[in-house]
Structure to design on (94 residues):
């Protein structure tokens, strides 16, 4: 199985959106970490890929939904990953 590549542009867009939400609520990264236990510095800078459960927790804390969170992101403009030829032709796809 081919390792999936991260999309730096998308991670930066996620980070910008998280920073925007935090600043709209007038919160510091330290305050969010104290209340949620989530360290945001690397995520907001696009250096870490947050898990879906982390995003759910942060969105819940900010009083928003995942749908609203992702609706505010910039378009995902990079080409999709091409399947590796070594992947089995019998793999099920959705």
């Amino acid at each position: 199985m081919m390792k999936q590549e991260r999309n730096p542009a998308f991670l930066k867009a996620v980070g910008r959106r998280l920073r925007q939400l935090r600043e709209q609520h007038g919160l510091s990264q330290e305050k969010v970490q104290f209340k949620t236990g989530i360290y945001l510095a690397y995520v907001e800078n696009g250096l870490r890929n947050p898990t879906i459960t982390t995003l759910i927790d942060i969105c819940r804390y900010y009083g928003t939904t995942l749908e609203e969170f992702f609706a505010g992101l910039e378009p995902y403009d990079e080409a999709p990953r091409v399947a590796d030829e070594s992947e089995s032709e019998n793999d099920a796809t959705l």
Observations:
- The two ends are 17 Å apart (CA to CA).
